[in-house]
Amino acid sequence: MIRLLLILVLCGALTGLTTESPACSCIDGGGFFAIAENAAWQPGVLIVRAEVKSQEMHGIDVKILEIINGSEKRSTIRVWGDPGFMCRTYTTGFKTGERLVLILSRIKDASYQAEENGDYSLGGCGTFVLRDDGKSVIGRITGTDKEMSSDKFYRELNELIDKYSPDKARIFPVPTDNTLTVSVPDLNQPTLSMRIFTLSGQPLLTRQLEVGRQHPIDVSTWPVGMYIILFRSEFQSYTRRFLKQ
């Protein structure tokens, strides 16, 4: 699986978006969900929802809006695409302010121009990036799905990633209209930090959750809509979403 991931990251082609893609002789890794399933919780892999802040040579600076998989303390990161010969996805088609869902690989041995260790690269030979307009996620999500509601997309993506991560907190039922239960597994620490936000970033609840227990959260009086939960442990942070009906 690791060998497959390396092939996918080093080769670059973007299918299903208007961004121009390089021509590479490599095996197509499939749609975004297929790439995410292979990449989930691999070292150096980051899956995020982000906003394009600026174009930088053959890359883009993006502001992280939500970490779906992996760990990154910085709020803004640099993502490098293809300068013309690296078999990555070109980034020149992305516009400032555009919101994307990205599967990224952290650069360890930077050797080209302004690229630095700790930056990220945007792979290809599959779909490593999708567009998120706030209501729908657009691009080659699967072999047949080219567009999906944001609610359905993030729910299915989280379920896909969670299959390979038994040590992550789980939430249910989703959607909910009364009580949301947060199930925290046994971890090598006494508590797990939890913060709940609206989609606009307004904080609603902060709590330290004891590990190895289920924690009911009363959301019966909250407005109908989508909410983001940020979980943070000593070693990583990740987010989950739920819909209040």
Task: Give structural notes.
With 245 residues, the protein is mainly β. It has two domains: 32-163, Beta Barrel (OB fold (Dihydrolipoamide Acetyltransferase, E2P)); 166-244, Sandwich (Immunoglobulin-like). Helices cover 12% and strands 39% of the residues. It has helices at residues 2-10, 32-39, 150-162, and strands at 45-56, 59-69, 76-80, 99-106, 120-122, 129-132, 136-138, 147-149, 170-172, 179-184, 191-198, 203-210, 213-218, 225-232, 237-244. It is globular, with a radius of gyration of 18 Å. This is T9SS type A sorting domain-containing protein. Residues 171-241 form the Secretion system C-terminal sorting domain.
Counting copies of identical and different chains, the oligomeric state is: single chain
Approximately what portion of the residues adopt beta-strand conformation? 35-45%
Which class do the helix and strand fractions yield? mainly beta
User: In total, how many beta strands?
Assistant: 15
Total separate domains: 2
Q: What is the distance, rounded to the nearest whole angstrom, between the alpha carbons of the first and last residues?
A: 39 Å
Order of helices and strands: HHEEEEEEEEHEEEEEEE
Helix percentage: 10-25%
CATH class descriptor name of the largest domain: Mainly Beta
User: Which fold does the CATH topology of the largest domain refer to?
Assistant: OB fold (Dihydrolipoamide Acetyltransferase, E2P)
Protein name: T9SS type A sorting domain-containing protein
